[in-house]
Design a protein that fits this description.
The chain is mainly alpha-helical. It contains 8 helices and 3 strands, in the order E-E-H-H-H-H-H-H-H-E-H. Helix 3 runs parallel beside helix 7 and helix 4 crosses helix 7.
Length: 294
Amino acid sequence: MPLLTLHNQQIGWTPLLVLGYLFYLLLGAMVFQLLEKQAETHFRDQFQLEKLKFLQNYTCLDRKALEQFVQVLMEAWEKGVNPEGNSTNPGNWDFSNSFFFAGTVVTTIGYGNLSPSTVAGQIFCVFYALFGVPLNLAFLNQLGKSLNAHLITLERWVQKPGRAQVVQTLAVAIFLTAGTLLFLVFPPLVFSYIEGWSYGEGFYFTFITLSTIGFGDYVIGTNPNKHYIPVYRSLTAIWIVFGLAWLALVFNVGADLMEKFLQLKWHQPDLSLAQGATTKSEDEPEQPRIHIPS
């Protein structure tokens, strides 16, 4: 096992990785609490103030009746019904929206703004995800291998004699830049125009979606005051699938680079093992430097 040499003592990298992972989670918790706690308190106080103003303007209502009405609104929201507007609002379960929902299930994005409300729908969702999630992983894995094969072909082309290292770096940079533009830069412009968001909100939605975090605070096609084309969410679902494969490849490359960076500080105590590994690597054909997890 690779070891880290520190003050002439060898420490396994696994405990350090676990500690680093926990530290990263604790750091995130503290930063999020620092940034969001005060805003949450402000919005909560503002909401209570609005309820008091509402009771003062409509004296025929008491607090209990208002709380019951708020509960009705909350239940409607949990069932995927937008309280704004009226009954003429577009439904959540037409084919386009259902196709989009199916995509969020198999990709495990799960925005949380919409879920099956019937027992039959919930049972079907469980079995649909049971088979759909592995199918999605297999599809993304195959799609990732296809992208990886193109990278390998590109790498072999640029590694031919007479081609400088600059050309190789430039080729990889073009691949990453093209994917960034196609999946992270241009889509927020489209979402911002259609949904009325700022570019920052559109980029936030794009990354949170493609990384499968899926908070559900921003979801496309849910504004009752806007008219969407029928295939809007279906086309977005297809874009999400290909974006997932590309971003997974980028994350994998980043993880490989991080591991290689950490290995620079690792030390193998048994030189014979290291020499044996070197001999073995020389006998085996060269493997691609970018791997897609299977």
